[in-house]
Structure formats: C-alpha cells, structure tokens
Fold this sequence. Notes:
Belongs to the Mical family. By secondary structure, this protein is α/β, with parallel strands linked by helices.
Amino acid sequence: MPTDVINKPDELFEIFVNAQTFKTILHSFDDLCRVLRIDRKLIGYGKRSLYKILTSKLTSWKSKSLWAKIDKRGLQKEYENGYACADTKVCIVGAGPVGLRLAIECALLGARCVVVEKRDRFSRHNVLHLWPYVITDLKNLGAKVFYGKFATGQIEHISIRQLQCILLKIALLLGVEIYQNVTFIDTIEPTLTQPNWRAHFEPVSHPVVSTYDFNVLIGADGRRNSLHGFQHKEFRGKLAIGITCNYVNHHTREEQNFEEISGVAKIYNPQFFNELQQQTSIDLENIVYYKNETHYFVMTAKKQSLLDKGVILQDYPDAARLLARDNVKFSQLCNFACEAAQFATKSTSQFKFEFAENHYGTADVQMFDFTSLFHAVNASRIVERNGKQILMGLVGDSLLESFWPTGSGAGLGFFGLFDTAWAILKFAKHEHPLKVLVERESVYMLLSQSTPENTKNNYQLYSINPATRYQSLNSKMCTIEEIRHLYDSDSIPTIDMNNNHIISTKTNRTPVRRTQSFKQIPSTLPSNGNNTEKETLLVDWCEEIVDTYAIEIKKDSKAFQNSLAFCAIIHHYRPDLIDFKSLQPDRPISNFQILFDIMHDQLSLPIDRKLQNSLILSMKSSIEERIRQSSIVILQLLYTHFHHDHQEQQLQRRRSSTALLDVSSPILQAIQKPIDETNNNNNNMTTNININNNNGGSTIKVSALVAHYSSSEISSSSSSSSVNSHNLIGLQSERAPTFCFYCKEKVSIQDWFVVEKNVLHVKCFKCDTCHLQLRKTNYQVFIEPITGKMTFHCRYHKLNKPEKVKENEKKKKRVC
C-alpha cells in the first residue's frame, strides 16, 4: 500500500504526459496538483513558484529529464532567474501554438500569465513545416518527452493539434493559467473606483478572468484578432483557390509506403500535373502532402477545373461570392480532394481515403483564397489612462500572415513572439514608452523578410533578445515621430529621452492621443516674404524638439553657439547619424564640424565650406543679431529637410518595409489600389492592394509568387530586406535548378539549401573526402581543373589547388 501511494504522483505525471486532448490535459494536471497537495492560489503564479514546487516533488527519471531541459533554458540571463518581470501581469487571447509559446516565455520571465481560449478542444489537424531553429527551440523545452516521434529522422513537420498539446503541458508546468470557453470582448479602462486595466469577457461571471488586473495584453487569436486599435492591410495577388484536407491515418502497410510531397509546383514538375489532369481532369498549380497523425494535403486548384468538376456552381468575379458556401457543392469538393490524394499517393483502387473530423464534426476539408494575406501595420501600442499604462501587442497570424508555400508560418510566428517577449521585458523595466515602441516597431520591420538563410545559424544561442537572432539589426530604424501616435495617453508628458525619464502632468480634460498635446507646425514655411513670421515658426519648431533634450533656446543662445540645438534636431529625426551623448558643450568647433559633415555628406544639404566658415565665425561673435541670422539659416535647412521632405520619405519607407510583398520592387511592377474596408467585428481598418503586371494588367500567378519567395534565398545576400529584382517573365528560366547538386533528386521549396549558388539537400552537404556532414562555416570548395567538377571538403583537408596541379603536370612532362 505505501508503495502505491509513493508511486501515485509519478503515475499521474505519466498520465499527464500522455494526455492528448485539451480537456484531459487540464484535468490530469488538476489531479496531479491535488495529489501533490499544491494550492495554486496560495503559492501564487509568478516567479516560477509552481514550477519550483513541482520539481521538488516529482523525481521520476522522465520528470528529471524534463526539469533539466527547462532549467537550462531558464538560466538565460534575460530571465534573471524568473524575477525579470515579477510585477508584470499578462493576458493572452488565444491558445494557438504562438500564444502558448509566448505564455511560456512570460512564465520564464517570472510574470503571471493568463491565457483565454474561446474553444474547448484542439481540433486543427493541419501540419506545420518547422524551420530548423523551431525544432531546436522545442527540443530544448523537452518536446520529445511529451511526443517521442518529434523531429525524428528527416521529419520537419508536426500537426497544429499535437504542437498545441506539447506547449500546453509545458505552460501548465511553468504556472500559466489557461481557461477554455472564454471569449475576449474589449478592454476596460482604469477608473477612480477600479484603478487597474481589466477586460470584458464572456461569460461575464467567470470567477478568475472577470476580476483579473493586467498591464500587458497580447492578441494571438488569428487574422480576425479581437484587439481594437490595430490597423491591418491586405495584399492580394491573382485569385488562387487553396484546398486543405485531412484524412484518417490508419497506419496500414500501404499507408506507410506513401511518399510525402513536401512542396512541388507545376512549373517545376509539369509531367506530374499533366498526368493528373489527363487521368482525373483535375488541374492544380501546387500540392503538398505530409504524413502525420493524419494524411494532410494542401493544393492549389484552377478555377476552371473546379467549375468543370462541379465543385463551384457559378462563376463570379468577386472571390468572396465565388467561394461562398451557397456556391460550393461540398460533396463534389470531397470527391475532388479524394481523387487528387489518390493520384498523389499512388494508392490502389481498393484503398479509400476517410476524412478526419474537424471542430464541427464534419469532414475536415475546406476551400479558400490563400493569396489574401493580412498583416498589421504596427506590432504594438501603449495606452495610458489615469496613470496606468498597458502594453498591447499582436503575435502569430494576428500580426503577420505567412505565404503558405514557403512554410514560414511557425518560423515567423516564433520569431515574432520572441520579439514581443523582449518588448514585455523592456516595458516591465519601466523604460520610456516611446523607446519601447521604437525598438519593437524597428524589429517588426525585419520580420517579414526573415528566412533561415539570412538569420543567425547558432540556434542554441537564440533568446528573446533580437540581437541573438537577426544578423542585421538596427533597433532605431523607426523614428520617434513615426511611432509617436502609438503612445496614446490622457496626460501631457514631459520627456527626457536621454535620461530615460518621464514626468506626467495630469490635466482635467478628456483623453486625447499623445500627438495632440503638441503644437502643430505647418509643413511649409509662409511664402509671403514675412521674415518675422518665418523666424518665429522656425524657433517654435526648434524649441518643441530641443525641449525634450532639456535645452533652452529662447532665453539663452548658447545652445545655438555650441551647436547642441542643431545636433538635437538631427538626433531627434535620425538618431542613427549622431551620438548626442558624446557631444560636449565646451567644444563648439568640434560640434559644428560634426553637424556640417552630417548635413553635407548624409543629408545632402547645400552647405559648402565657405558657408560653414562664415556660420562658425558668426556663432563665435558676441553680436546677438549675427548669431540669430546664422541660426535661422541652419534651422531653415534642417526644417526643409526633416519636417517637410524627410517626414514623407520616412513614412513611405515605413509602409514599404512592413509589406509582405514588396510591391514597389521591379519583380512585381505592381499597380497599388488601396481600398478601405471595415471589419464589423473589430472595427479594424484594412487596405486591399491588388498586385498586377504591366502586361495588359494581367495578374501574377501563384507559381510566380512561389518562385519569387523561394528565389530570394539565392539572390539575396545577408540583407534581411533585399528582394529579387529579376523580371517576372524571365523568372522561370533564370531560376536555379530544383534538383540536388549531389544526388540529383528533387528538392522541395521548403528544403532548399543553397551553397555556392547550388541547391542541395542538407543531408547531401558532406565532405567529398571523409564524408562527414558539413556546415556553411566549415567547408572549402575544390574545382577540377579539367572537368570543372565542383566538390566540397572540410577545411582541414589539404587539397591540390589548380595551380599546384598544373605545376605537377609540367614536372611530369619534363621527366618524360
């Protein structure tokens, strides 16, 4: 009997590890805590308190191996042993893979984290392609303890449902609170009677979330996110109808012999698609097949083929009307998907595919327009009411929808959540709100262009710090003026950005946006010849900026004479050009030289050497009039550049940098047609941009979009925002081969590994001498002088270079 009692906690832990549904995972964890006599309300939720108790009471070999992995992750310096965000309370809307993974990061930081999910089950069977760093990250968290088949051999994918189960278990062990059947409605601002931020949920009478106070709110509930205040844009190419379907995997001998198709397009393998069309009358552009818990297929079908097969009843020019439920015959859609699956797997006529069930208990097959891609204009915002600030952010598909043929959904989702966790850490450290927003939005500009090829390859060193993941990181890419509207405050703050200090002066007025508290300066100077009015406007503009740097200019002209006022203006708009803290007031000549060099070399302003000397001599004089006139000359140059011309350029650069598809690049030659749409659910403004060719307005094909995304891995260098500039017409003929350089077998788009402009499998990148696996940092190339054959070798091998070969041949001839 005592033995049974001793083993019971470990047995319950084993049941918890093997649980495979949302409800059973939650119930088994409650049972485990009850047997261990752990009162979660009594011990608290932050500072990893629950995790510390579990590690002391569960001592089986499996639990110890899990604790070792989580402890190693928790030792990263950013977490500060679980006290970095000890006073922070986080609420995450959505228990998808990205939302749960972010909850784990918040728990490791020591914050209290509550996750609300409107569903009561995990039913998404769709399979995610995993980037190498995602696999490393999940292994380091102990994913194989919960799912032994994870990332075995060449398998680099996992079903969404299985990934949710893994992350849910880890989150619970770290003390994350997760509540099902709870829907987020809106935030509730602080008042005199209720001084903290809360939210309105359904059901209203929920015992925990209805009274939960938080200061960080994250939306992780998909493209139709429920957080207000975030604008979204939509990028749309030519109509491309995607079909996803899941079939039950009975694990029979015939099913085990099915070969996966990790991604193939018609332009790469026309024979396959031509045979498919001849035998079944099904015309596809792409197809993907992954074998997991289910047989998962994704395919892109031609509209005419769907009309001919009776799937779509009537042809409409509008995509929403075309794919509406009343215009789709569901039984024919199921037959269409089954025929394509049977041909792709080369199954026998006796084998019948059986559809898996979705959340609604029907066949798990759906049809949609996948070229409709949404992304948020901004990743975060900070709202202040009655002295209480809240950081709001988006992650996952709420932030950035990925283009599915590239298999980047999980990869970009994890990158984005790490960036958000870094912003939460900065916010918890009470850094200035504008500084937090500048860094978060600057990092967000890099996200859409990130790939495994242009990010750092030492995955073991990855952390929430963006510097450990991005190769070319500029955390000040955005200017304060660009993101100032994201700080929504009901007070008028006095800001000292250099000392990282903010003093809020409360006013008895209705809440207004942060930008409305500043004096509005005209974008152009008056042209009526009134010099006094011009000078007044310039001085007011300068005073508004330098006031944040604790510089006085109206009562004292020293700030002009030592150049600090002018340098402050440049630092305000372009902090990347000048280190303001290094300037010294008692060295005016040096300061002016720095100022003039930047104005002439970086800003291309008309200030030659003669004018520079004249201005410096005027500033050194004791005559106020000469100082004033010289100051107005410099101010007018800076005003014209920054406040009028440069502001428009910066806004245009900000819009283009966050785009999923660079519609201004030569590869697309697009015509942008913004269309404002209103989402009745969340009142978020969306912009619809159609991407067309210049050739008679013909629209871009899906296969060309696939080619554009995948070719950027070869054509781009280390720059994360570079794009392929080849014309779309010649793109197919100029693409690198899609067959492995070594084994000559086909390489799917997701598995491309580019070395010396050659495409090959990762497993084929081996030393030609010793046959050991190579990496991009430890190889050398040898080219045969006669045949021109290229081979790869380890760096330490001594190879006969072409020059030495020629010398040896000459010596042999002399001997003969």
